[in-house]
Write a structure and sequence with these properties.
Length: 111
């Protein structure tokens, strides 16, 4: 995952105006770039975004690399419309890998 550099927060906001993000764990569209309100996954937690997120630096805020859920603007239009449909209907996508345990994918029933 490459790291994108922005001069200001405004430049970041102009590139991603929707403020919608895709959870790296459950694949749902969320409004918080760090926390999924569907599965509870956190982009700033121990496993971060499984390499499916977005890394960037905003120079005016310092040289810290931030990792967030992937902004929807980075997705191709056909994939995005499919994700919006699934998010709106509540249809289950592939479950988060962290909720699987045991042999042969025995599912952990936590919700």
């Amino acid at each position: 995952m490459k790291i994108e550099v922005f001069e200001t927060q405004r430049e970041f906001n102009n590139k991603f105006p929707s403020k919608f993000y895709i959870c790296s764990c459950c694949g749902k569209i969320v409004i918080d770039k760090y926390t999924c309100n569907y599965c509870g996954w956190r982009a700033d937690g121990l496993f971060k975004t499984f390499g499916k997120g977005y890394k960037f630096i905003i120079k005016e805020q310092g040289a810290d690399i931030q990792e967030i859920f992937k902004p929807v603007e980075t997705m191709k239009e056909d994939n995005l419309s499919k994700m919006i449909l699934n998010s709106n209907t509540g249809q289950e996508d592939a479950p988060c890998p962290i909720f699987f345990k045991g042999e042969e994918g025995e599912k952990d029933e936590r919700k």
